[in-house]
Amino acid sequence: MWSLWKHSNLRVWDDVTETSAVVVERARNMVTDWQLVNALDTLAATSPSHHAMAANTGTSTSNQHNRILWQPPLSCRYKCNFDAAFSSHHNRTGIGVCVRDSEGIFVLAKTLTYPCTVSVDVGEALGL
Hints:
Elements (H helix, E strand, L loop, with lengths): L1 H13 L5 H27 L1 H10 L20 E10 L4 E10 L4 E9 L5 H8 L1
Antiparallel strand pairs: 1-2, 2-3
């Protein structure tokens, strides 16, 4: 339903016409993501020690084969992760940055907002 709603809004507000294949593919991806997240939540609730071990060591279990786990940098180095969020309603782009050391310990974080919306590639480049 959300994919249909998104399709309708794109057509009305942005004059973008999508094919039915695009609408269906977006819906399928959302269902797959929803199932994966719920499976991981169930795994975490039923086996927290096993889940924590996989997250800390970077190993993958059969239930987590699609999950990308954070990998620490080499010893005495830092790792900077960033992501971008977009709000066409508020015409804003938000950037979040988090730096951790080689043991995964938090070092610093920063958030930025820009008074415009940009493409995903540009948003991630702004974070970098």
